[in-house]
Amino acid sequence: MEKTRLPLHLCHVLKTDLIINRVYMFFLGTALSGLFYYRITTLSNIIKTREKPLVPHLLVFISELLFTFLWVLQQAFRWRPVTRTVYPDRLPGDDEFPPVDVFICTADPSKEPSLGVMNTVISAMALDYPPDKLAVYLSDDGGSYVTLQAVREAWKFSKWWLPFCRKYELKIRCPEAYFSAEESCDDRFISCSEFLAEKKEIEKRYNEFKESLEKNCVNASSSASRDHAPIIEVMNDAVDSSQQEMPILAYVAREKRPSRPHHFKAGALNALIRVSAVISNAPYILVLDCDHYCNNPTSARQAMCYYLDPEIPPKLAFVQFPQTFHNISEHDLYDGRLYCYWRRWLGFDGVGGPSVSGCNLYLKREALYGTNNVKNDIDLNHLKKSFGSSNELIRSISMNYKPHLPKERKLTDAQAKEVKRLASCDYDSQSEWGKEVGFIYFSVVEDVITSQFLHCQGWISVWVDPPRPCFLGSCPTNLSDTLVQYQRWALGLMQISLSKYCALLYGRGRMSTLQIMCYTANVFDPIYVVPFYVLAVVPQICLIHGIPLYPKVSDPFFIVFAFVFFASQLKHVQEVVSYGYSLMSFLYELRMWMMRSASSCLYAVIGAVLDKIGLHNAHFTLTNKAGDDDQATLYQEGIYDFQASPMLIAPICSLYILNVVSFVVGMARIVQTESGSEMFVQAFIPLFGVIVNYQVLEGMVLRKDRGRISASVSLLSAVIATFVLCFGSLFLIY
Ligand SMILES: O=c1ccn([C@@H]2O[C@H](COP(=O)(O)OP(=O)(O)O[C@H]3O[C@H](CO)[C@@H](O)[C@H](O)[C@H]3O)[C@@H](O)[C@H]2O)c(=O)[nH]1
Ligand SMILES: [Mn+2]
């Protein structure tokens, strides 16, 4: 009795952070009003007297306005940060657990090697959860026989692996991670000879499994296709080597045709929702990317601490875990940990719940079906309009429906026909799939738009970040992949911010003000590109021409500007450090923010505008998960790898050259004209940029290795910088 009364989870407000944040908001807010007082009075003076050029002052003013607007939105993340703790050992017995379906998406075995994908699949099957309540679905958007064959092999291996995990209560159930862990025997059986013998045997089987995958993936690169019929295979023969039931494992390649839109990952997930509805129809769904394996087998139990709590509102749509990565080097050069997001998510959680972060979340199936569709008295025609014409699928919407899978797990002919229909590329078209039902197709960041829809319908979410990460994925480990990935994210975010779904408009009356601010801050993130470019170009050109844009050192308003700059940097340092990271992480984050703004965001904003006017089609460029040894060495050593398309690198180098030149010329001018006090801020800005990004200089001038910036890119950048300087000079002196 005592046991059931203890809470399954707790939520703590981070009081110290809350106080620091609010004090910071107050002081920075006050300083910003001082800054705008200064700007407005100077601008009106300039307009009256025309003694100084108006254009650069106006541009700097606009950029400060934008910075401030984005800053204000960001403060919602700082308003009420919370953390959560769960107590899975207080859960009721296994027989009270609801079934869970696991969805894993993969798209191309040449960019997403089978071995990694299969490790994710196996780790999901090995979750510490009743196997008869677990079903794992692998969506293969490549429809590749390499992947299908790998799934069959993984199924065979897992018949040995699952009983081994269960018997010895392994904490690491991803085989690759288990066998390569330094202390793989994190279990209590280290000195038991039976365990050691079994482990050796399993390791042998694992190596055979790996070999079979290697042989199988020789033609991986040509095996993915964009033109194929649906292929669905449920692995049969469902008992493991200890005669226990295995979880369901199904391979699903939805139909793809070159002329039909397939909506990328969101489309794949929606096909899985439909197919799984008529096979296992679990009320909860775990979504994983193919590289995010389960690192802690208790994640489902942790999520159930919320779903099984009678006190928690039934409107809980999802329990989100962070994306954590197993391949981060000590330096985390490319800010792959994505810490700035997870820090914000603590605050997001405090105001109604974080947004979906792509994968690693336990979702309530009902939430994806649309609130209006799951009422009891709904008529059949309405349901067909929403869900398409499959009666079988519509029957599954009532959650008590338990589809019948024959004992030997071979789909009956009728079932096989039905699942193929549900995975066909036309199934979506006459229905609300992707519009109101399932994952939303509107943007390439399907996660953000889908969760915004859920929150707007009154659903809530929680953020759980336990000390031992539940999932571990792989993040990009070179500049090119990082910039390409961010460009897609930024493009997706811009698609939302330029549409009627921008939370600022769409969220009104549907979400709380703080939640609206969080969502808006999120989707407006790429807009930093505008003030960033202004501050990276305008003060510099004006420095060369001796046009002061900021107060003199002796002016009292100088303190206001200095305060705004230092307070915001210090706040960033405080956040990095209080989250447990080193001072260097602050620098890496700052650098990556600058490089992303200079490059990814620039193209993303242009792409989104072209997409909006119909001149460009946004698409999903898959992030590469296959390593390259040279690149890995550079990454481990903490050396930037600048090998990337010139398109991506040239903007960064051009800005760098422009800042170096303007600083040198500007300093010469300052010495000559003794205008140090007047031009102090303007000399400081390029100096700051040049020092923070000194590795760009290194890459252009000092390095000789493969990861340097090539001479041709440096030359191109110098030409661009000269052009911007000349053109800017013409324009900015007015
Ligand atoms: O047409 C596609 C494209 C992608 N994927 C899968 O989607 C997942 C994420 O793709 P990835 O290339 O790894 O992109 P990331 O940028 O690393 O993904 C992040 O950003 C995405 C949104 O842009 C989210 O969906 C992801 O969960 C999040 O990890 C992978 O498992 C892919 O196999 C598909 O199934 N079909
Ligand atoms: Mn990924």
UniProtKB/TrEMBL annotation:
It is a multi-pass membrane protein. GO terms for cellular component: endomembrane system; membrane. GO terms for molecular function: cellulose synthase (UDP-forming) activity. Mn(2+) binds at residues 265, 289. Coiled coil: none annotated. SUPFAM superfamilies: Nucleotide-diphospho-sugar transferases. The chain crosses the membrane at residues 23-42, 54-73, 527-550, 556-573, 593-610, 648-668, 680-697, 709-733. UDP-alpha-D-glucose binds at residues 111-112, 141. The active site is at residues 141, 447. Pfam families: Cellulose_synt. Keywords: Cell wall biogenesis/degradation, Glycosyltransferase, Membrane, Transferase, Transmembrane, Transmembrane helix. This is Cellulose synthase-like protein G1. It comes from Sesamum alatum.
